[in-house]
Amino acid sequence: MHRNSGNVSTVQQRIAAVAQRSPKIAFTSLAHYIDLEWLIEAYHRTRKDGAVGIDDVTGKQYAENLHDNLQGLLDRLKSGTYWGKTRKGKWAVSRKTMKSRLARSIQNIRQWCRKNRHKPVREQWEKLKAKVKGHYAYYGITGNFRSLGNFLNLVERQWRHWLNCRNRENSMIWEKFKLLLERYPLPLPQIIHSVFKSKR
User: Fold this and answer.
1) Cα-based angle 95, 100, 102 (whole degrees, multiple of 5)
2) Gap between the Cα atoms of 39 and 1, Å rounded
3) CA–CA gap between residue 151 and residue 106 (Å, rounded)
4) What is the DSSP string of 90-124?
5) Rounded to an integer, what distance in angstroms lies between the CA atom of residue 55 and that of residue 132?
6) What pLDDT was estimated at residue 1?
7) Contacts of 163 (CB under 8 A, 6+ apart)
8) Which among 20, 164, 185, 199 has most CB atoms closer than 10 A?
């Protein structure tokens, strides 16, 4: 065992114990528990004479810049970036919006819609368009299309809800809101940062 293993947090040790006792258990997310110290400990526990990884980097090459490599790995874990397959079965860098970040984005939309629900619909639409496009500009990367669609659906739900709260009649039923969306459509999901675009 590596000399710094005693510094690994109790929570992380418990997770490791559960995984060892029940190897078939499925963890939904562990990203919020992982830190640099844990990655360093994991590195020292792994074999260094195995085959090269999918990135063609040997253990020796990885160790030459260990701290920066592990920090980069940690940043990718926290950002939701992962190495996945395309529809054609090829490997590519992908990203999935983490649930906590999606929840924060929708919370901001909810607060904005609540605060501005009495403004003219066209004015609300212009602002919401900009917010949705801004979300796509940041999270619109290859492999994240489904999450973008989920975001759009939740934005539309928040908008309808707060338009419906503008008076006591609660007249903004879904049929009426769908007609409103035909006149004031929000931007459809779009991949802005594609790994397949040729470099100039």
Assistant:
1) 65
2) 14
3) 7
4) -EEEEE---HHHHHHHHHHHHHHHHHTTTS-HHHH
5) 34
6) 46
7) 113, 117, 121, 172, 177, 180
8) 164
With contact defined as beta carbons under 8 Å apart, do 95 and 144 qualify? yes
pLDDT < 70 positions in the chain: 1-9, 11-12, 26-32, 52-57, 76-87, 91-98, 195-200
Q: What is the DSSP letter of 7?
A: G
Q: What is the pLDDT of residue 79?
A: 63
d(CA 65, CA 107): 39
Radius of gyration for the chain, computed over Cα atoms and rounded to the nearest angstrom? 23
The reported pLDDT for the residue numbered 36 is 84
What is the distance between the alpha carbons of residues 101 and 33, in angstroms, rounded to a whole number?
Answer: 16
Q: What is the dihedral of CA 106, 144, 128, 103, to 10 degrees?
A: 0
- The b-or-e profile of 114-124 (16+ CB within 10 A means b, else e) is eeebeeeeeeb
Q: Is the pTM of this model over 0.70?
A: no
Residue 47 structure tokens: 């074999």
pLDDT at 21: 82
Indicate the DSSP class of residue 128. H
How many angstroms separate the first and last alpha carbons of the chain? 49
- pLDDT of 76: 64
